[in-house]
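Each record in this resource describes a single protein on a pair of labelled lines. An example record follows, reproduced without changes.
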Amino acid sequence: MAMKAYAGDHNGKYPRGKTANEVFRELVRADILQDERIFGCPLSGYVPDNDVGLAPDFNKAVGPGENHWMVVDGLGDDALASMPVVFENALEATWPPGWDGSPYVGIRKRGQSWERGKIVIGLNDNSVVVEKLGGADLRRQTVQPGLDGKSIFDLVPKAVVLDIEE
């Protein structure tokens, strides 16, 4: 919803940056969000301290190690409703993204899935889905295809993924 609010004041376009952290930092600078904790996930080890710094730069907002989510670059509110916009940090910033589906113990590492190989994805229609990973190699899995043989990441043939800052 914050991305949509930003787009309302920026010709329908979502914020841009070199990293996902920069994109989310722009939401703080635009006064759409005042609390950076929504970008973290305590069980993943990416935990914001909620010190965003001072206006107008807010240079401490969503700093390295404070963001759990990757972003698809270059989207706007006119993208397909079911297009992934934000999703669990993957093993690397590639399209389609891939995750480590092996069981985890304690704090999750970068690119690890949740129990039973699941990940969380935020879609352009403001909904959130939990998708199951699949594939023979547990160390690099992608989202399982649906009944139509395609996964949620097959909606576009190629996209640029913005990485997290560690």
